[in-house]
Amino acid sequence: MKFYLLSDNIDTQMGMRLAGIEGVVVHERREVLEALEKAMHIEDIAVILITTKLVQTCPNVISELKLRQKKPLIVEIPDRHGSTDIGEVMDAYVSEAIGVKL
């Protein structure tokens, strides 16, 4: 089982490549959705890492996939553009999933 990266910048992609994680650099909403769809259909991909900036291009779609799909696991990661408020993002996902504000 492998990791796969969807990144908005080459720096994150190169860093992950050094760790043995392949991926693509995309910028537009359409590109993000196409790359995500393609990655989800690769059999040996267990975890898709996606940068915060890309999640913000299509938050509803990614949130729905996180809640609905069993495999692969979609994990948001901060990058050089991302904020350090990843905890707030996680709280929002949990709140949306259970319907209770944390």
TrEMBL record:
Keyword Ion transport: yes
UniProt-listed InterPro entries: ATPase_V1-cplx_f_g_su, ATPase_V1_fsu_sf
Keyword Transport (UniProt): yes
Xref: SUPFAM superfamilies: AtpF-like (SSF159468)
One GO molecular-function entry: proton-transporting ATPase activity, rotational mechanism
Domain of life: Bacteria
Protein keywords: Ion transport, Transport
Family membership: Belongs to the V-ATPase F subunit family.
Protein name in UniProt: V-type ATP synthase subunit F
Species in which this protein is naturally found: Amedibacillus dolichus
